[in-house]
Amino acid sequence: MDFGTKRVAGIIAQVALLLCSSSGTHGADVCDSSLVSNLPPSSFRSSSQLSSSHAPGFAKLNRRDGAGGWSPLSSDGYQWLEVDLGERTTISAVATQGRYGSSDWLTSYLLVFSDTGNNWKQYRQEDSIGSFPGNSNADSVVQYKLQQPAVARFLRLLPLAWNPSGRIGLRLETYGCPYTSDVVGLDGSSSLVFRLTPDPRPTSREVVSLKFKTLRNSGTLLHAEGERGRGLSLELERGKLQLLLRQGRTSSSEPRRLSSLGSLLDDRHWHHLAVERRSSHLNLTVDKHTERIQIPAEFSHWHIQQLSVGAVQSLGSQKPVVSQRGFHGCLENVLFNGLNLIDLAKHKDHQVTLMGNVTFSCAESVSVAVTFPGPQSFLQLPGATASSSSGSVSVGFQFRTWNKAGLLLTFDLPQGGGVAWLYLSEARVRLQVHKAGRALLELGAGSALNDGQWHSVGLNSRRGRLSIIVDKEEGGSAHAAHSFPVTVESHLFFGGCPPENDRQECRNPFNIFQGCMRLLTLDDQIVDLIMVQTRQLGIYSNLQIDMCGIIDRCSPSRCEHGGRCSQSWTAFHCNCSDSGYSGAICHSPLYEQSCEAYKHNGNTSGHFYIDVDGSGPIKPQLVYCNMTEENTWMVIQHNNSELTRVRPSPEVNQHSVHFDYSTEEEQLLAAISQSEYCEQELSYHCRKSRLLNTPEGSPFSWWLGGPAPGRVQSYWGGAQPGSQQCVCGLQGDCVDPQHYCNCDADRAEWY
Ligand SMILES: *[C@@H]1O[C@H](CO)[C@@H](O)[C@H](O)[C@H]1NC(C)=O
Ligand SMILES: *[C@@H]1O[C@H](CO)[C@@H](O)[C@H](O)[C@H]1NC(C)=O
Ligand SMILES: *[C@@H]1O[C@H](CO)[C@@H](O)[C@H](O)[C@H]1NC(C)=O
Ligand SMILES: *[C@@H]1O[C@H](CO)[C@@H](O)[C@H](O)[C@H]1NC(C)=O
Ligand SMILES: *[C@@H]1O[C@H](CO)[C@@H](O)[C@H](O)[C@H]1NC(C)=O
Ligand SMILES: *[C@@H]1O[C@H](CO)[C@@H](O)[C@H](O)[C@H]1NC(C)=O
Ligand SMILES: [Ca+2]
């Protein structure tokens, strides 16, 4: 096999992989083997079981073993059944059935997936409805094909509703096929560098694709470098992926941002990334969204010499171009024009160099997040243990939300000392200590904390010194001016208060919190949220434990015409001011499409905004509407209406004049095409100054203009386009009949 066919084979393999991961199974790629029926009982786990014959291992489709399926001890909204498929597997469909010979079946459920048995991700069908309708009796099988196949090792089914005259009862099956992949783990300073062999005929198209997973919201993922240090890189910045362009190796050339795509990419779930380039056209894909980007023309003959995956490694020199943090996390199936770079690295290919600590596995740190979807969400934890009631308290956690306000934490001070509220207000963290309706203390720290990023909060009281700290170094802190000892002896309430709250132990005069929290610490001890989930610690309601269900409703933005998108936990909002449009998504045009329409409305001559294509993409433009005649005129002014005097000069043999219309080309073209008649005026007064010289051959002067962009024109003053004449030539009344333009007659008078 020569190199050419090998590369073609590589590309075909890669295309097949893209299809499989992004648009499901097609044609011959059958992916519907039973995944559950042959698993041993040890592969099943559940929140609880009614008896040993209702154990989760009996939850296999069409089996009658044990009690004929799984039933939990109590039927409530806190139950789940987990299946460990042994390794990451492509899951294409799921089927459920009730417990054999019983009145126990599910009518609705959620599916969540995980690689590790930790950090679950809820599966949503395309219509973004999360719940699956279940069964209507104990025996018939209801099967769903997943519109987007999932790749996971662990699967959990969470019952939402069940037969009202029965219990939760379940048998299930999932269908799919094996998933094979190559992974690497990178630590923020390590990288994998691929050097391309110089190719006299470089490929016209470059494709890079990979999957990544990280919990850091920043870091360089890819950097491609070519001649003279010119490069393109993809970097994570605040959880979004940025495409950056570097003009050269010198530090003075700041990288230019060409595009930003995706959001919340630091969620420790796999994300798919693909970059395709053909000369200066580039397609960037993150998960399901593709953006077409035009890169500067200088890059159309640029060729990649080196591709760094992870931290930036500069060509030649050993020290990195920019001392920036590299990617920290895992990468899978890194393909460059069909070449599997991780596989090449494993086989010690000479083109691939590993820099720093690169592992061929994906190490996962365990941190359990919890979602407060509201409105009845709260988490109650026991306060101080006996050992720490020494006048000090230390509570810490991280949160992420889109809401500007909400209760983070409240607790009572001992001996009727009042109540402490730690809450978000106007996107800042505030602390209030109240007693008998009077504020004893108020502190505030941080700003713009509703940006969807993780923020840390620490509340500390040591030796009477009370402080709140937001985001450690980068954030803000506030300290009580005078000594104010705080301890917690009863309970801590996170996010909200229990609905039955007879003893008034928890009161919330603020909004509820909607968002995620993680890394809860009490007296520097991390709270085990899995123990909370299994009801061995604290009390909770309406929480999603071990997943963060945050969604960015502004990415991609559904606001049209440049309307600015903002969001809360439950909704997004478009600010259409200055866009020229109105409505929920800035779709309805504020302005009429023509001067004619304003005249029809009864307006008289004046300046008006015209939106030639209505709700189409062309922006409104300000024009003058002259309605004095029967015909309505739309007047679009240029910036050069004063006479300019042109004098002969021995050094300068040409003179050029620029006319700049205040509207964009696209707007002008649309305005022209919707008009019945259109004219523009340019007058040239001459004395002994030839314009055309001869009717044939090259004219002495020309102008550039429409209808198509920038065409050379050589007709003047009312003559026919393409005629190379002035109007006297057309009318046959030129002062010198030898010439078709009075300027060409070399007379001493002005024309
Ligand atoms: C980008 O995507 C469009 C639409 O799928 C396609 O027509 C175009 O060829 C792609 N461009 C590149 C450079 O791959
Ligand atoms: C490399 O990374 C692995 C896994 O993260 C770690 O166990 C090992 O200690 C690291 N080695 C060095 C030299 O840092
Ligand atoms: C919309 O944006 C404008 C300009 O930035 C601002 O003045 C206005 O207050 C915003 N409106 C709303 C409802 O946020
Ligand atoms: C056009 O006429 C309407 C009433 O017919 C009036 O409300 C509006 O202000 C006028 N617009 C201008 C720019 O004069
Ligand atoms: C409006 O059009 C009329 C007739 O063409 C013209 O006489 C008048 O000067 C124009 N008004 C303005 C303000 O351009
Ligand atoms: C009109 O605008 C063009 C382009 O910006 C500029 O070159 C030209 O000097 C301007 N003319 C006048 C008279 O301001
Ligand atoms: Ca428009």
UniProtKB/TrEMBL annotation:
Alphabetically ordered keywords of this record: Disulfide bond, EGF-like domain, Membrane, Repeat, Signal, Transmembrane, Transmembrane helix
CDD domains from the UniProt entry: EGF_CA, FA58C, LamG
Stored InterPro entries: ConA-like_dom_sf, EGF, FA58C, Fibrinogen-like_C, Fibrinogen_a/b/g_C_dom, Galactose-bd-like_sf, Laminin_G, Neurexin-related_CASP
EGF-like domain ranges (all copies): 550-587
Localization per Swiss-Prot or TrEMBL: Membrane
Record field: transmembrane: none
GO cellular component terms listed in the entry, alphabetical order: membrane
Domain of life assignment: Eukaryota
Keyword Cytoplasm tagged: no
Residue runs in coiled coils: none
One Pfam family of this chain: EGF
Domain called F5/8 type C: residue spans: 20-177
Signal peptide segment: 1-27
Membrane topology according to the record: Single-pass type I membrane protein
Domain Laminin G span(s) in chain numbering: 183-362, 368-548
Annotated Fibrinogen C-terminal domain residues: 586-638
Keyword Membrane: yes
Family named by the database record: Belongs to the neurexin family.
Protein name in UniProt: Contactin associated protein like 3
